[in-house]
Amino acid sequence: MNSAPGFPEFEGWILDKHQGKLDPLDVARLNSVLSGQPYPEGLQESLRDIEQMEDVLSAQDLAFWDEHGYVIVRAAVSKEQARATEDAVWEKLGMNPQDPATWYQKAIGKGMMMDFYHHPTLRANRQSKRIQKAFAQLWQTGDLWKTTDRTSFNPPETDNYMHQGTPLHWDMSLEPPFHFGTQGLLYLCDTPAHQGAFSCVPGFHRRLESWLAGLPAGTDPRRVNLQAQVVPIAAEAGDFVIWHHMLPHGSSPNHGTYPRIVQYLNMYPVEFKENMAWR
């Protein structure tokens, strides 16, 4: 009979996923939150460094965010770092970027999503100070927790392969009350609008509540077709897109000649409020 792994096995799994060593500041932070004790000085100093760092998002960027509900952080990581992560994705998939025939030989995962979380380049991207500062500006605090999220691989459509991404959607409940929230992704290769770019309905965060209130009784808001309002968001390798989680969003069919490859990453405070009543 198989037995469930115990705590030592759990500790070993965590260390294995982090190359045998955890960041002492991350450990101290988690212990402080769980115990209710103040952060140690070293951790407080690291958070102050983010808050005192020069702004990444300009006043114009923040105004654009308020109006449209998304913003692009240019050069969030270097092109070399983005390329290193892209190479890691290709290696994980066992595919050749120079041979399109290999892009369709096996399933990627669930749709386009890859269960690929712990490579050193993925962890390095999560440490980007530019990304952390951008999130800190939007949340108005540097005390944010990072997600350990997936990557995705969206190859061009062919006669035998159709877009595997989810339709336009929300990842949040549509049951009020609504709270501020963010989502984000890092482009690992240059991605023009037609190359399966991330897409959203700009500005919808400003009218979601009134739109929901105006729907006929019994309407499932997730089945309403908003496709005519969708805008693809093109960006370069190393650019990071943050969007308000109240925007309907999704990937788009790739009509280019090269895959769209991205890493997902979000940040939020420990007090983040998520509506557990699902609609």
Tally of contiguous helical segments = 8
Q: Could you say what the CATH topology is called?
A: Jelly Rolls
The helix-strand sequence is HHHHEHEHHEEEEHEEEEE
Give the distance, in angstroms, between the N- and C-terminal Cα atoms: 41 Å
Biggest beta-sheet profile:
6 strands, antiparallel
**Adjacency order of strands in the biggest sheet:** 1-8-5-10-4-2
Q: Tell me, briefly, the overall form.
A: globular
Number of DSSP-assigned strands: 11
What this model shows, in words?
This protein is an alpha+beta fold and 279 residues long. It has eight helices and eleven strands. The chain has a single domain (57-268), classed as Jelly Rolls (Sandwich). The strands form three sheets. It has a six-stranded antiparallel β-sheet. The longest helix is centred in the N-terminal third of the chain and has 15 residues, at 79-93. The chain starts with 6 loop residues before the first helix and ends in an 11-residue tail after the last strand. The model has no long low-confidence stretch (mean pLDDT 94).
Observed structural traits:
279 residues; alpha+beta; six-stranded antiparallel sheet; three-stranded antiparallel sheet; 30% helix; dioxygenase; Phytanoyl-CoA dioxygenase family protein; oxidoreductase; 2-oxoglutarate-dependent dioxygenase activity
